[in-house]
Amino acid sequence: MPLPAGTHLGPYEILALIGAGGMGEVYRASDTRLNRTVAIKVLPAHFSNNPEMRQRFEREAQTIAGLNHPHICTLFDVGRQDGTDFLVMEFLEGETLAQRLERGALPLEEALKAAIEIADALDKAHRQGVVHRDLKPSNVMLTKSGTKLLDFGLAKLKPVDQAPTISALPTRADATAQGTILGTLQYMAPEQLEGKDADARTDIFAFGAVLYEMTTGKKAFEGKSQASLISAIMSAEPQLISKLQPMAPPAFDYVVKRCLTKDPEDRWQTARDVMAQLKWTIEGGTQIGIPAPILAQRRKRDRLAWTLLAIAALLIVAMAIPVFRYLRGPGEPAQVRFQILVPPMPNSVQVTVSPDGRSIAYVASTSTNTTALYIRPLGAVTSQQLAGTEGALHPFWSPDSRHIAFVAGGRLKKIDITGGPPQNLCEAPSFQGGSWNSEGVIVLASNRVLYRVSAAGGQPVAITELDQSRLEAGHFWPFFLPDGRHYLYLAWSPSERGIYTGSLDSKDRSLVLAAESMPFYAEPGYLLYQRQGTLFAQPFDAKRLNVKGDPVRIADEIPNNPANGRAAFAVSQNGVLVYRAGGGTAANSRFFWFDRAGKELQAAGDPAPYGTTFDLSPDGRQVAFARRDAATGANDIWLLDWARNAPTRLTFDPANESDPVWSPDGLRIVFDSARKGNPGIYQKNASGLGEETPVLETAKSEYVDDWSDDGRYIVYHSTEANGSGLYALPLFGDRKPLTLVPPPFTKDEAHTSYDSKWLAYNSNESGTWQIYVISFPNLEQKFQISTNGGVQPRWRKDGKEIYYLALDGKLMAVDFNPAGRIQSGIPRVLFDTGLTPTGNTEQYVATSDGQRFLVLKPLTESTPTPITAVLNWNAALDKK
Q: Any idea what the Cα angle at residue 843 is, between residues 693 and 749, rounded to 5°?
């Protein structure tokens, strides 16, 4: 029964019923607190009586309330009184688009104006991770101040066992006769009809259907029955708009047709792209309002005239160009900006653009929880995964834009973008970027210094050394300058981070400027870098190797990985800039406990910018972990007590520190620290009392893996030019390190069994990461445990079970029988962690009894941040 006038719902007084349908009623009401007129939608009883639906509704309403946009109907409040749930919204005077369409199609210019406003509203919502899911004419309000989208985003609150959605609460019920299709089926994308998840591209399909109806007065898809309508949506193509509306420009056909493409990968990928095309259509000048057939006749008639005129024009132009340039000045290239939606990216900063500016490449997650390289020509609408690039990281291009180099499994590889398998070039442990010159030389950052290697493959040769007097921690992200002999790179020390120049022909180096990120050089002479989240461009003399003018801000909120300085931008040599904005400088992650069946038991600790190394105390009551210091950008070691949920900082040195490992008695923690340049091994009391003391310092870089349970050995790996090897430091006798598994190839994540007789580790010696076990410390036996790849082995306390992560993120268990010669069972799946495994980090640990697993999971955005591409990015700078 409708609410009578005068009824109060909280501070809102009902004035009159203005609409009703099968899913609810809408009233005009007065907000007695703020003295304004509002619209109240009272939700049906079956909704209010479902606690789960109400909870989901309230969460979603909070998100929708944040969509502050002139073309989205504002949600003011959500209320509940006497078992009645209601929404309080902006009161709009006007009519719905559905009501307007009863009088026929909108005039073309009016329709285009409304379409641009709708696209702008969709773009705003999509950027905040909200998808409408029920865009249709009855959810578009036409007012004096423009269009307004109604019921935004609430469609996804549909209960599983109920067909109607909250978003399907129309303010006006459509009249119908028996046999007609009710509701919103005409605007549903094929993937919705197939039961797949909706995303921004689903809204774009519905937008195309609405746009078609706005300009033609006819629905894009029709049928006499539900089955025939579904068939039309899935397989039929609507008639071209220009056939039904002769005044529509041909470009408009293309805009709408691409909105209505069946495959979401072939549609416009963002509402902003659609809006840009619609604006371009409006700005198309004389073509708007000229029927398409007449345009075709004009083009045919004009072709001959233009041919004759061209001959004469060539002679005139040849003489006129010098005078014209003198009088008018050089032409100004237009700057074009657009966005590209990409799959979820585990590391938001790994995007790059080809030197010729035709394609971008980026690292993204695959369906198997690993990473791979994707390539996207800027003129295409879809991206392609490059086969054979699973596990890829840190891509960079060849100078001819035909190949991409990347690191995977600890090896530097290259791949032809037109096809073919990747080619191994060299070992590249701790890889942090590379650059490729026209002479076939690659400079790569590995083991914290720079090396050179042939683009055909070979043995890397070191070309830089860390400056021990400055306690340099590393050289990263080289980038060749135009002469192909000099290069830029990022150097870090505890007191300074800056961009330097180096040379293939000498050890000379010079500081260019202070910066926090990788450098790029772009013609006609700019140095691009990031500082405090802002991308700058500064004039740079590539011959004198110095900056010349003031920096100019290009973009804000550019993510930067504080652990290595990689930032989310790249630039071509012909004016194409790509970047990802937003997301801060480092993604947060959080600890979660799981049982053997994969059931999440509880979250542990608060979300924070944890590093990629941690260890559980022997009694299981604390975890030691690396965490980034916001002030220095480096990691420090912290402890977290589960009972108190109180993190405590253990180390305070400004240098980067990681890989904490507990002593068997739980009284001390060893870790690696770059406080003297190359990482060495240090220890400190777990109580926090006393100083940090060195355990092992050499000219190499050492990283802690484990402390044997008998307390006699610290196991670590050391990186070298041809890979990394495993070593054991005896804590008795002469303390001379023992070589366990030397290079070549990359060995990491070594852990001893609880009886200290066996050592499990991961290695890429077979061409992919696998798990191996060797007898320890006598090295008499070796056995491969994994069958299809694996990383990060862990032991059960009785030594009879080994755990590891498969390369698709599944946690595996394998029986181990140490009696006599090594024997192991067939690996079996415990559960899918959802992680993207790597061979040089800790992403989980097991309790000693193997019944619980502590997993560090990244907290990612529900909707990936798009890549922004800017053509002629330096047009405005070149005028100065």
A: 60
Which CATH fold would you assign to the domain 8-172+183-287? Transferase(Phosphotransferase); domain 1 (1.10.510)
Q: What does the alpha-carbon distance between residue 418 and residue 620 come to, in Å, rounded to a whole number? A: 51
Map tokens 């619209």 to a residue: 39
Count CB atoms within 10 A of the CB of residue 107: 12
Question: What sign for the dihedral angle of Cα 251, 255, 256, 261?
Answer: positive
Q: pLDDT (tens digit, 9 = 90+) per residue, 145-170?
A: 899 998 764 444 433 333 333 233 33
List C-alpha distances in Å: 269 to 124, 202, 340, 521: 14, 10, 7, 30
Collapsed DSSP state (helix, strand, coil) of residue 442? strand
Cα 102 → chain centroid? 44
The pTM score is: 0.53
- Coil, strand or helix: which one is 499? strand
Residue 835 in tokens: 């992680």
Q: Say if residue 209's pLDDT is above 50.
A: yes
Distance CA 534, CA 552 (A): 10
d(CA 793, CA 727) in angstroms, rounded, equals 17
Which H helix or E strand runs over 62? helix 51-65
d(CA 748, CA 702): 11
Tell me the three state secondary structure of residue 48: helix
| CB neighbourhood size of 99 (10 A) | 15
Q: How many whole angstroms separate alpha carbon 731 and alpha carbon 696?
A: 11
Q: Which residues lie closer than 8 Å to 163 by C-beta, 6 or more apart?
A: none
Cβ–Cβ < 8 Å for 381, 269: yes
pLDDT of residue 349: 64
- CATH class as words, domain 336-583+863-879: mainly beta
Between 790 and 177, the more confident residue is: 790
Residues of the chain with CATH 1.10.510.10: 8-172+183-287
Diameter of the chain by CA atoms?
97
User: Is 285 strand, coil or helix?
Assistant: helix
Cα 815 to Cα 64: distance, rounded to the nearest angstrom? 51
The first and second tokens of residue 125, run together, are 């919502």
Q: How confident is the model at residue 594 (pLDDT cuts 50, 70, 90)?
A: very high
Residues in CB range of 430: below 8 A, 6 or more apart? 446, 447, 448, 701, 719, 724, 840
Q: How far apart are CA 256 and CA 261, in angstroms?
A: 9
Closest CA to 258 of 213, 192, 207, 185: 207
- Right CATH for 595-858 from 3.30.300.230, 2.120.10.30, 2.60.40.10, 2.60.120.260: 2.120.10.30
Q: How many CB atoms lie within 10 A of CB 540?
A: 24
CB-based burial label for 104 (10 Å; 0-12, 13-18, 19+): exposed
Backbone region of residue 89 per phi and psi (left: phi > 0; alpha: psi in -120 to 50; beta: other values): beta
Identify whether the C-beta of residue 640 lies closer than 8 Å to the C-beta of residue 605. Answer: yes
C-alpha–C-alpha distance, residues 539 and 365, integer Å: 36
Phi then psi for residue 373, to 5 deg, are -85, 135
Instruction: Give span(s): CATH 2.120.10.30, the chain.
Output: 336-583+863-879, 595-858
Other CB atoms within 10 A of residue 857 CB: 17
Which residue, 8, 217, 10, is CA-closest to 110?
217
- By residue count, the chain amounts to 880
Three-class secondary structure of residue 231 per DSSP? helix
Which residue from 231, 298, 269 is spatially nearest to 382, judged by alpha carbons? Answer: 269
Token output for 796: 């059960």
If you average pLDDT over each of 50-59, 181-190, 694-703, 790-799, which comes out highest?
A: 790-799
CA angle 172/177/179 to nearest 5° reads 120
Dig out the tokens for 589 from the structure: 């992650």
Distances 131 to 99, 195, 202, 264 between C-alpha atoms, Å: 24, 16, 8, 14
